[in-house]
Structure formats: structure tokens, C-alpha cells
Amino acid sequence: MASRCITWHPSSYLPPPHRRSQCSCCSSSTSPATRRSVTWLVYLNDEWDAQAHGGQLRVHERAADAEQVVGARGADLQIGWLRATSTLGEQPVFLDAGRSDDSGNCVLYVCLPSGGSRDLSQPFHANPLLFLSGGDLVARRLLIEREADAKRFHLVDAPKSAASAYLPQPGPEGADGGEQVRDISPTAGTLVLFDSVSLPHEVLPSVGRDRLACSGWFHEHVYPPGTHTAVA
Predict the structure, then answer these.
(1) Which listed residue, of 17, 22, 103, 218, carries a Cα 20 to 30 Å from 163's Cα?
(2) Is there a contact between 212 and 41 (Cβ–Cβ < 8 Å)?
(3) Following DSSP, what letter does each residue of 88-117 receive, concatenated?
């Protein structure tokens, strides 16, 4: 577990959407690589007035409960959602980067209640442009096979560019209409824990006061490609 103390000065903020899914290596060269799994925060601000001082942690939760475990499935990180409908539940979408196919080594898939999985895409080669150039739209048109799945698909983080700040911003329901916003006041003694991969978040600007907190991350092992369940 890693930790640190943070001071946010007045007007400091963390823009949306933000999530932590980075991998890191331990100090010893022989230690296995790890990935941030759960983020924790303990706020240290006495007599904090959220209306006057701002500085809330804003999390962009899914409005519907997920049908399956979120964040990661063994070596496979969650990269998106299939939005809930009136007849279908919210489903996390995972990226399997360990396939062996001439067309590519990556496949998007969802888990089934039976314990199996269903592929949403044909194998493809990893390319950042697939996600950075157009986000949801590119993934829906180029990767997702079924039209019904494409209509429900949404990346966990919608990619942002320098021009994003000048474009119309989505409301609290998010770009795909499946989110809800929760603001958490940084009041002393408040403990917050959330999944580092599946929950985008931002920090609103603080006004007139420093915002103090201790934060840390629980880490999990980075499993070899092809591992689809956590190994004890």
C-alpha cells in the first residue's frame, strides 16, 4: 500500500474525468509490478464549509448497479460499460490483451452470469488512436460488432483534448446518460474509498483555504496476459 499527504491550495483543482489505473514497480527490482486497485482518502480540514470553501471530491458514479465485479478481472482492466436499459443490467466491459490471433491480440468482452464471457469485438491490434481520436464514437463504429451493444457502449473515461473545455459539457447524467454525480465534502475525519479503475472523479476548486488530506492506494499484482481471475 502506498500513501502520501496532500495540500491543495486555494483555486487548485483536479479536472474531470480522472481515474488512476497506472501500473508501478516496487522499489526492489525483483518485486513484481503492481497496479493501483483501491484509492483511499482521509480529510483533515476542521470546520470546513463546502458552500463557502468548495473543494469537494466529485465522483461520477454509474446510476445503475453493475451486474458483475468491476475494475479488473485478473490481467484484464475494465475500459468501459454497456449502459443499463429497461430490460438489461449495467455491464462492465473488459479488455483482454492476451489473445493470439493474426488480426490482433486485443478483444473487448463482458462477463456472463454463468461465469463465462461474451466477446463484443473481433481481435484487433492495440492503438491509442482508436480511443484518443474519437473515444466512444470510434470504438462503437470500428470495434463493437453488434449494433445493440454499440448503442450501449461507453468508455469509463471519455478522452479529453485541449478543445474539450470549449465544447458543451454533459450534465450530471454524463455523456452516455448513465452516470450520476456525488459531491463529498472534505470535512475532517471523512474516509473515502473507491475503485481506482472504474470510477472517474475530479476535485472542485477550493476557495480561501488550503484543503488537506492523506491519500493512498491499495495495490494488486499485475497478472500475466490470459489470466482472467485474481490469483491468491
Answers:
(1) 22
(2) no
(3) S-BEEEEEE-----TT-SBEEEEE-TTS-E
The grid cell for 62 is 454509474
How far apart CA 145 and CA 219 sit, in angstroms, is 34
Query: Which domains are assigned to the chain?
Result: 2-62+179-221 (2.60.120.620), 72-155 (no CATH)
pTM of the model: 0.77
Region of 55 (left: φ > 0; alpha: ψ -120 to 50; beta: rest) is left
What count of Cα atoms within 13 Å lies in the side-chain half-sphere of residue 210? 6
Distances, alpha carbon 81 to alpha carbons 47, 84, 137, 181, 226, in Å:
38, 9, 14, 17, 21
Cis peptide before 17 (omega within 30 of 0): yes
Q: What single letter denotes the amino acid at residue 112?
A: L
Residue type at 11?
Answer: S
Least confident of 49-53, 149-153, 156-160, 202-206: 156-160
Q: Could you report the per-residue pLDDT of 159-200, keeping only the tens digit for each?
A: 554 445 555 667 778 777 788 899 999 999 999 999 888 888
Q: What is the rounded CA–CA span in Å between residue 29 and residue 155?
A: 34
3-state secondary structure of 82: strand
